[in-house]
Amino acid sequence: MLIVIRGAGDIASGIALRLWRSHIQVVMTDIPKPTAIRRTVCFSQAIVHGTAKVEEVTARRADTWKQVPEILTAGCIPVLPDPEGSCIALLGPDAVVDAVLAKRNLGTKITDAPVVVGVGPGFTAGTDCHAVVETMRGHTLGRVYTSGSALPNTGIPGLIGGFSGERVLRAPADGIFHQILEIGAQVREGDVAAEVDGVPMACTLTGVLRGILPDGTPVFKGMKAGDVDPRCAVENCFTVSDKALAVGGGVLEAVLALTGALKEER
Question: Global pTM?
Answer without folding.
Answer: 0.92
